[in-house]
Specification:
The protein has 410 residues and is an alpha+beta fold. It contains 14 helices and 20 strands. The strands form five sheets. It has a seven-stranded antiparallel sheet with strand order 17-16-13-14-15-12-18. A five-stranded parallel sheet has the order 6-2-1-10-20, with helices on one face. It starts with 7 loop residues before the first strand and ends with a helix.
Length: 410
């Protein structure tokens, strides 16, 4: 693509990264059309906000940036240019003031995504950005025109530049299906394989445990894998385990499973108690109580936690009733769970892998494709839940928009 007098920019993908790129571009004087394959914009953003839209996080910026792991060096400058406070101010300007929750996470006061998205789309429309829905991007024609499949048949678009913000491959029914990988790879762009991030894992539960405890939470637990321990909540699923605390460890767990075929997760069911304190509680007379009632009263364990203990004991070939109070206490705070697979990417919250940063210049333009920029989850980075995913999507979208304006002004 090469600059033309009309400065028409195609933004492909109407999620946070694409819409933020469009906002920067239209305010920079460009004529902008945002294309999306779905019938409405921001579908994954709306899904993310179903339980409360976690926009960003309030922790100090050095700790915040560390959440991006290997990608920190590539994302630091763009997040510093559009930091969490800037995102909060931006939300407030749309009439959606934010608040900091008890965990440090930042939410709109309305808690939902829909009021924010509606206000944003109204503002973009008022500023002149056009929205073309049901336009599935299929690549380029030989002369560089962008090609789309629409309900009315194929369509070709001449644009001065394009911003690709097509997302990863999680929740494909919301529009992010990873189909762009093949299109860009055919152009020689190096792409790391897309993998599940913030995902669940599979466990070979017994039928009895699966049928009884599917969907049950394990609250206030501590999960340990290797040198990393996370406090939080996990959810037992029919095929395994998921939840916030699992997602925080998912990158390391995924890589271990991909390398060795399994990963051993350890769960402390009462991490607020020492082994000595638990042992003292479990040394009380059991009387005629069932083992489950005794554990519920003495150790304050939920039925799901007791079921998990019984599952672990059964796997080890022992009965809980045969364990001494000290051994039972140790098991309660060190339940081994063998993870034997990663849940499908379609069920993951986000995606790892994507366009390598060495394929981009400092303005987020794909070096092999002059005039084509990329942002958001298409890029090779991952982060835990907690606001880090959206913050980087917004920030890279803004950076790509600025990059296009700079390129047009050459």
């Amino acid at each position: 693509m090469s600059p033309s007098p009309n400065n028409h920019i195609a933004v492909i993908g109407a999620g946070p990264a694409g819409l933020m790129a469009a906002e920067v571009l239209v305010r920079g004087g460009a004529t902008v059309t945002v294309y999306d394959a779905m019938p409405s914009a921001g579908r994954k953003l709306l899904m993310a906000g179903r339980g409360g839209l976690n926009l960003t996080h309030s922790e100090p910026l050095p700790a915040f940036l560390a959440r991006y792991g290997r990608a920190k060096s590539h994302l630091a400058s763009v997040i510093e240019s559009f930091p969490p406070q800037a995102l909060r101010d931006w939300s407030a300007a749309l009439g959606q003031a934010t608040f900091v929750g008890s965990s440090g996470r930042v939410f709109p006061k309305a808690f939902k995504a829909s009021p924010l998205l509606r206000a944003w789309l109204r503002r973009l429309d008022g500023e002149g950005a056009r929205l073309a829905l049901r336009h599935r991007w299929t690549g380029w024609r030989e002369d560089g025109h962008l090609t789309f499949q629409t309900p009315d048949g194929p369509r070709e678009i001449d644009a001065s530049a394009a911003v690709l913000a097509l997302g990863g491959a999680s929740w494909p029914r919301l529009g992010s299906d990873g189909a762009w990988v093949e299109t860009l790879a055919a152009k020689g762009v190096k792409i790391s394989p897309l993998r599940p991030a913030n995902s669940g894992f599979t466990v070979a539960w017994s039928d009895i445990f699966r049928d009884r405890f599917e969907g049950e939470p394990l609250k206030g637990v501590a999960l340990t894998f290797g040198a990393h321990t996370v406090r939080g909540e996990a959810i037992i699923t029919r095929m395994g385990i998921e939840g916030g605390a699992i997602y925080a460890l998912s990158a390391d767990l995924r890589e271990a499973i991909l390398g060795a075929g399994l990963a051993m997760l350890h769960i402390a069911l009462r991490p607020d108690l020492t082994i000595a304190e638990l042992t003292a509680r479990l040394s009380a007379l059991k009387g005629k109580q069932s083992q489950s009632n005794f554990l519920r009263k003495a150790a304050h364990l939920s039925p799901a936690a007791i079921g998990l203990l019984q599952e672990a004991a059964k796997t080890s070939g022992v009965a809980l009733s045969s364990l001494s109070p000290a051994d039972l206490a140790r098991l309660i705070n060190d339940v081994p769970i063998e993870l034997d697979g990663v849940a499908p990417i379609a069920r993951a919250i986000s995606t790892a892998g994507g366009i390598g940063f060495d394929e981009l210049d400092d303005a987020f333009m794909i070096k092999r494709l002059p005039g084509v920029f990329a942002a958001g989850e298409m890029l090779d980075w991952e982060a835990p839940t907690g606001g880090y995913l959206l913050q980087a999507s917004f920030a890279t979208g803004a950076a790509a928009g600025k990059g296009v304006l700079k390129w047009l002004a050459r």
